[in-house]
Specification:
Chain lengths: ~200, ~200
DNA sequence: TAAAAAAAACCGACTGAACGGTTTGTATTT
DNA sequence: AAATACAAACCGTTCAGTCGGTTTTTTTTA
């Protein structure tokens, strides 16, 4: 096999192994030795592709960012026309998808939080930009922000092992957050503070 | 000084040192040596009071749980009569207070998430109980849950270094979450989906 | 076009530092 | 005198990263 393919295959194996370890054993158990064992390559081979452990975590974060960005973009392309607030709908859908996957790339956040917090800077900036778009497209920017924060609460709680909810409860709440009619007082949906007949 | 006082003083110093390290250096830098240095006691003295590192983390979690429980209880005692949903109001206020303190006991969650995830079980159970009360007191249990989740989103994002908001924006959003009139469509407050004249 | 050289990917043993915890001792309190 | 709190040196293990090597692929040379 050619070297480019070989390298990419190794890098992909490392990323998958890292996520598996975080999901199963916790962020504290993510070590270079553990990644090498889990991915079936040697520690020297791992370190040839990633010069330092921080480089592994940075790669995890890059993959996570790309996944979130691509998922949101695809959601807007496919469903944007159906929504008054396409970007908020996309963010809610992305977080919902991220949390439903037990090997989610979102686990990269757990790894960075635990071991390299300065890698979170790029995530904060990306979230800032997303939030600006979410607020700009909304008739009620504060309500849109709070819906986004509730989705974040669901996601971060689940991701970090802090959620008191079942999977079914979580999915139900995500569905409520995504339901635009509920939040804009349109007919056909129970709305805050009142009942539809 | 008597031995009980001595022990308690040492234990308090350890707790404060641990929170300072997590806040400043991140959860990954919380080690027994770092705690000993930061607290000004020896490693032997530290280990006399906490038999293992896990015991230190468990103590952090106990203090955090007590703080949250006491803060919520005090809030209900002082302000409960003013709220249709006193427990939700108390939870929002507790999370707001927790996140405003740079040395917050909530940082215990960060330590446990990073190093001893099984210590989070008690937190999940306590949150489950709180959520049951919050839902029981609400006319719209789902809306109450979502408000609670938004407060959680604000808190966990800030705590874990993931928040794209300024402190002023965060405080503003907590204030909105706490405003019962806003969420129940009462006069005097902008409400979801409509305007008050 | 085949062989040789160079480059890249990978392996596994090794190193020094950091880590959690232990041991032996001293000082203070009971 | 015994118990408790604490200090400091120490131990074995784990860790990130290094190093010298092998294998495979790519490029250069004859």
């Amino acid at each position: 096999m050619d070297n480019n393919t070989r390298s990419e295959r190794t890098r992909a194996a490392v990323i998958q192994a890292a996520l598996a370890i975080i999901a199963r054993d916790g962020a504290g158990h993510l070590t270079l030795d553990a990644i090498a064992r889990e991915s079936g390559i040697s520690k020297g081979g791992l370190m040839h592709q990633f010069r330092t452990k921080k480089a592994v975590l940075a790669a995890l974060m890059e993959h996570q960012a790309a996944f979130f960005e691509n998922y949101a973009r695809d959601h807007i392309a496919a469903h944007g026309h159906q929504h008054a607030q396409p970007r908020l709908a996309a963010e809610i859908a992305t977080l919902h998808a991220a949390v439903a996957d037990p090997r989610s790339l979102a686990l990269a956040l757990l790894g960075a939080v635990a071991q390299e917090p300065e890698l979170l800077g790029t995530t904060r900036m990306a979230d800032r930009e997303a939030l600006e778009v979410i607020r700009a497209e909304a008739a009620d920017p504060d309500l849109a922000t709070l819906r986004w924060l509730a989705a974040r609460g669901l996601t971060l709680s689940s991701l970090f092992g802090l959620s008191p909810l079942t999977d079914a409860e979580r999915d139900h709440l995500f569905t409520l957050l995504a339901d635009e009619a509920r939040w804009t007082g349109q007919p056909g949906s129970d709305q805050a503070g009142g009942k539809q007949g």
